[in-house]
Amino acid sequence: MVDLESKRETFIFYYKGEKKQRIDIFLSKKLNIPRSKVKSLLDKQLCSVNNNFQIKPSYRLKINDKIVCALDIENKELISPQKGELSLVYHDRDFIVLDKPPGLTVHPAPSEKQPTLVHFLLYHFPSLKKIGGERPGIVHRLDKDTSGLLVVALNEQSRMYFSELFSARKVDKIYLALVRGKPQKEQGIIELPLGRDLKNRTRMAVRSKGGKPAKSAYQVIWTDGEYSLLKVKIFTGRTHQIRVHLTTIGCPILGDKTYGGEIIVKDYKTKILKKLVKRQMLHASFLNFSLTNKEIKTFQSKLPLDFKQVLYFLLQEPLKVILVGLPGSGKTELAKYLDKDFFSADKIVHTLYKKGKDGYFLLRQMLGDEILNFNEEIDRNKLWKCLKDNSYLRKEVEKIIHPLVFGRWQEYVRARNFLPFVVGDIPLYLESRFAKDENVVFVGVFRPEEERRRALLKRGWSEEKITQIESWQFSQEVKLRQCTFVVDNSGDLKLLQKKAAILKNMLVKLKASKVKNKIFLVEEKIKKIETGF
Ligand SMILES: CC(C)(COP(=O)(O)OP(=O)(O)OC[C@H]1O[C@@H](n2cnc3c(N)ncnc32)[C@H](O)[C@@H]1O)[C@@H](O)C(=O)NCCC(=O)NCCS
Ligand SMILES: Nc1ncnc2c1ncn2[C@@H]1O[C@H](COP(=O)(O)OP(=O)(O)OP(=O)(O)O)[C@@H](O)[C@H]1O
C-alpha cells in the first residue's frame, strides 16, 4: 500500500455534492484526467475514500467523504516543458487568457506527436507543475485547428473555480465562423443533441437518441450568398458542437474536412480559397465571466492572420459596373473602352437563340415554328414581329431569357474575382430587376436623341422598331436617375474614349474605398458583441 498523504503529488477532496456521484466522474473532472485513468488509479490503490482503498469506479460518493488521491508520476514526467511562443491576452496571479494559434493541440493525447500548449505553458509557468495531471491548468478546450481565447488556471484553487464555472455554463463564449452558404435566417438557434457518430467514431453527429443536449445561437455578420461570416454563441460545450450544428443548417465551416467544409476547386475563386484555407475557419473570439469577487472579466481576441486573409479575400468582390441607357446611346462602345472583355447581354441572347441551345428550345416550344427561317434557325425579324404587338408573349420570353442571362453574368463575375471591376452591357438590368446587389454601380450613357436615332436607323431598325423597343424600356430620365456616374456621349468616339479613361480611374478608386468601407463595417460588427443573442 502507498502512504498517500506523505507524497508530494497528493490531492485531498471532501465531497460536498448533494447528489451521490460516481467517483470516476468526480475525479475525472477534478483532476482533469480521463475516466480510464481514474480506474487505473483505483485499481492500483492510489486512491482512497475515508481511508478505504478497495474502491470501484462506480462507487457513489456521499457528502463529506474524504478522497485522497495520488497521481502516478510516470505520465507526468513525460510532459517536459518546451520553449514556445504564447500569445498572452491577460495575466494575473490566478489565471491567464491566451490566444491559441491554429494547429496547436491543447494537451497531450496519444495521437499527438508535436509539442502541445501544455508543454509551452509548463515552460513559461513552471508553477503549473504543482497542479499536476496531464492537463495542468486546463479548464476548457479548443480543437487543434480552432484558434482563439483559452483560459488557463495557474493554481489549484483557480483551476477548481474555472472548472466549475465552465461546467456550470457560466462563461459566455462567442466564436466567429466562416462558412459555406448562407443560413436561411439572419439569426437563429440550433438546439440538437449530439453524440458520437455511430458509423464513424471519430466524428460527432446529431443523435436524437443517446445524444447530449446541445445549444448554439448564430447571427449572420456578413454574407454574399455563397459564403458567410457568422457569430456563434454556445450555451453548451459539446465536442465539435459548432462544427456539427452549422452543418445542420447547410453551412459547413470552410476548411472543415470532417464535416463537409472542404474547398472543392471549381474556378479561379475556389482555387485561391483552397490555398488560403488551411484549417477550419473557426475562431474563439470572445469570453466573458465573473471572478470570485464578482468582478466581470471580458476578453476579445484579434482575428488571426489566416482568418483575416480569407475574410478579406471574400470581401474583395469586383465592383459590378452596369451600363444603362437607351438603345443606340453608346453603351457597347463605352464598354469596349472600359474593358475589352466586357459582358454583353445581347451577345449572350444571340448565342442562347442558336440552334440546339436552351433559348432555342424554349422559344420554339412557346412560339412554334413561325419564328424559324428555312434552316430552322430563329429568325430575329420574325421573332420581333411576333413580340411587337403581344406584350404578354414578350414578357413570357423575357421571363425565360433573363434568368439565363443573369446566370451567365454571375458565372462571368465569379471567374473574374481578381479584377477591381467588371463591366456588364446589360440594357435591361434595371427593368428586369436582376437580383439586388450592393456591389453594383450603374453608369448611364447619354447620347443626343438625333444621333441616337440615326445610329439605330443605320443598324437597320425601322422607326416603328425604335419607338416600340424604347417603349419596352424605362425612360432615359428614369434610367439616368439611378446612376452613380453619367457619361455624356455627345461628341465623337475619341472623346468617348477619353471619358472612359477618366471613368476607369474613378471606378478603381470607388472599388478600393468600397472594400475599405466593407471591411470597416464587418470589423465593427465583429467587435459589437452583445447583439441580440
Ligand atoms: C426583340 C428582339 C427579337 C430584337 O432582336 P435584334 O437582333 O433586332 O436586337 P438585339 O437582340 O441585338 O437587341 C438590341 C437592343 O434592343 C433592346 N431590347 C432587346 N430586347 C428587348 C426587350 N425585350 N425589352 C426592351 N428592350 C429590348 C436592348 O436595348 C438591346 O440592346 C430580341 O432582342 C429579343 O429576342 N428580345 C427578347 C429577349 C430580351 O429581353 N433581350 C434583352 C437582353 S437582356
Ligand atoms: N460617340 C459616338 N460617335 C460616333 N458613333 C457612335 C458614338 N457612340 C456610339 N456610336 C455608334 O452608334 C451605334 C450605337 O452604339 P452602341 O451599339 O454602342 O449603343 P448601345 O447603347 O449599345 O445600343 P443597344 O442597347 O441597342 O445595344 C454604334 O454603331 C456605335 O458605333
TrEMBL record:
Gene Ontology MF terms: ATP binding; dephospho-CoA kinase activity; RNA binding; rRNA pseudouridine synthase activity
One BP annotation, GO: enzyme-directed rRNA pseudouridine synthesis
EC class (word): transferase
Keywords (A to Z) from UniProt: ATP-binding, Coenzyme A biosynthesis, Cytoplasm, Isomerase, Kinase, Nucleotide-binding, RNA-binding, Transferase
Domain of life of the source: Bacteria
Catalyzed chemical reaction(s): 3'-dephospho-CoA + ATP = ADP + CoA + H(+)
Main location: cytoplasm
Active-site feature positions: 143
Compartments, as annotated in UniProt: Cytoplasm
RNA-binding S4 domain segment(s): 21-83
EC number(s) recorded for this UniProt protein: 2.7.1.24
One GO cellular component term: cytoplasm
Binding annotation for ATP: 328-333
Pathway: Cofactor biosynthesis; coenzyme A biosynthesis; CoA from (R)-pantothenate: step 5/5
Alphabetized InterPro entries for the sequence: Depp_CoAkinase (IPR001977), P-loop_NTPase (IPR027417), PsdUridine_synth_cat_dom_sf (IPR020103), PsdUridine_synth_RluA-like_CS (IPR006224), PsdUridine_synth_RluC/D (IPR006225), PsdUridine_synth_RsuA/RluA (IPR006145), RluA_PseudoU_synthase (IPR050188), S4_RNA-bd (IPR002942)
NCBIfam families linked to this entry: dephospho-CoA kinase (TIGR00152), rluA_subfam (TIGR00005)
Function of the molecule: Catalyzes the phosphorylation of the 3'-hydroxyl group of dephosphocoenzyme A to form coenzyme A.
Recorded family membership: Belongs to the pseudouridine synthase RluA family. Belongs to the CoaE family.
Name listed for the protein in its UniProt record: Dephospho-CoA kinase
Source organism of this protein record: Desulfonauticus submarinus
Taxonomic lineage from the root: Bacteria, Pseudomonadati, Thermodesulfobacteriota, Desulfovibrionia, Desulfovibrionales
